[in-house]
Amino acid sequence: MKIEKLTENKIRITLNMEDLNERDIDLHSFMSNSIESQDIFLDMLDKAEEEVGFNTDDCRIMIEALALKDGHFVLTITKFEHEAEKSPSIERRKSLHIKRKNSDINFKKTIYSFDSFDIFCDFCTFLKDTLNERQITDFSKSSDLYEYNSNYYLVLSDINIDSDTVKYICSSITEFAHFVNSSELFERKIKEYGKLIMPNSAILTCMEHFT
């Protein structure tokens, strides 16, 4: 992680995928403004204060996020000073706002591990009860389910960060499954040693036949 002070009110933080993996959070959850991503933002703000003197107490914060082809992730953070009645930590959390910039990036696959097929079915049942088919297909162009070492792995491809449901699905899936670090390497392993159970549209297939 690299922190640069651009002006008194603006800094730039550059992250790579290793930085996210170290914190056990995937890119899509990070962009969805989940509780985990907000915790990371707050940690980065503390580090920025320590390294470059960028103090955000009693400030409203805007975060512009840009993903690059080389795997780097650039955050431009701007602070707007104002008086706050609440405590600094609460005010900072409620003031976090992410502005996403369009970028020509081909998002890598994301993999989640389910302890059993029944739990995967529970997840699909949950989505079936809360979302429609269009919302699910808009979230991810492809979903494959593999069996490997008695676990079941859902491989999500080309996730649409601008989808209305990305935040909801990314936060919901963590109630049923575990995010797999080094997804690209692990995908090659499960393709070679695992068994493909449901190709292309695993979530919709499960919803149709097992829920």
What's the short version?
It contains 9 helices and 10 strands. It is of the alpha+beta class and 211 residues long.
Strand order of the largest sheet: 1-2-4-3-5
User: How many domains, as an integer?
Assistant: 2
Describe the biggest sheet?
5 strands, mixed
Task: List SSEs in N-to-C order.
Answer: EEHHHEEHEEHHEEHEHEH
Number of discrete helical segments: 9
Structural class: alpha+beta
CATH C-level category of the largest domain: Alpha Beta
Oligomer: single chain
Give the CA-based shape.
elongated
Instruction: Assign a percent range to the helix content.
Output: 40-55%
CA-CA gap between termini:
43 Å
Cα-atom radius of gyration: 19 Å
Strand percent estimate = 25-35%
Mean of all residue-level pLDDT scores: 76
Labels describing this entry:
single chain, 211 residues, alpha+beta, Alpha-Beta Plaits, 2 domains, 5-stranded mixed β-sheet, 5-stranded antiparallel β-sheet, 40% helix, 29% strand
How does this model look, in words?
Residues 83-107 have low confidence and may be disordered. The chain has two domains: 2-100, no CATH class; 110-209, Alpha-Beta Plaits (2-Layer Sandwich), CATH 3.30.70. Helices cover 40% and strands 29% of the residues. The strands form two sheets. The chain has a five-stranded mixed sheet with strand order 1-2-4-3-5. The protein has a five-stranded antiparallel sheet with strand order 9-6-8-7-10. By secondary structure, the chain is α+β, with helices and mostly antiparallel strands. The protein has helices spanning 17-22, 27-31, 35-52, 88-95, 117-130, 133-139, 166-173, 183-193, 202-209, and strands at residues 2-7, 10-15, 59-67, 73-81, 98-100, 110-114, 140-148, 151-159, 178-179, 195-198. The termini are far apart.
